[in-house]
Amino acid sequence: MARKKKKKMETPAWIMEGFDSEADYNKTKGVKEKKKGKTFKVRKCPKCGSDEMEVVIGEVGVWGCKKCSWEGKGVDEIEMSEEEFMKHLDKKGETVA
User: Fold this and answer.
1) What is the CA radius of gyration of the chain?
2) Long-range contacts of 31-35, Cβ-Cβ distance < 8 Å, separation of 24 or more
3) How far apart are the C-alpha atoms of 90 and 47, rounded to whole Å?
4) Does residue 62 sit within a domain?
5) Which of 81, 65, 85 is CA-nearest to residue 73?
């Protein structure tokens, strides 16, 4: 059996370009940091901003807004941490167990 060759270790780009940390490098390059822990995605209507979105039955990839009756594929999606999501639900008046 032939063994696979191991890849050589490479110096990270942020070091090669002279940055003090990976976070500084990512900020300069416009790379968003992933949120740590559990994240939640909330879909918002591009017309009215409501988060009361639902899938339109019989259509592929089409979303509908319960509030303003907008339908389409260009739904805004916001990623929230667990803490932000809980605050969002409290603000809406949703009961959380």
Assistant:
1) 21
2) 35/79, 35/80, 35/81
3) 23
4) yes
5) 65
The tokens describing 30, both together, are: 């416009």
Query: Two tokens at 22?
Result: 């990976």
pLDDT in tens, the chain (97 residues): 667 777 788 888 888 899 888 888 888 888 776 656 788 999 999 999 899 999 999 888 899 999 999 999 988 888 888 888 889 888 888 877 6
Going 72 to 76 to 80 to 86, the CA torsion angle's sign is: negative
66 assigned to some structural domain: yes
Domain that holds residue 57: 37-97
> Is residue 2, in this structure, part of any structural domain at all?
no
Beta pairing partners, 39? 81
Using a cut of 0.70, tell me whether the model's pTM lies above it. Answer: no
Nearest-angstrom CA–CA distance, 74 and 46 = 7
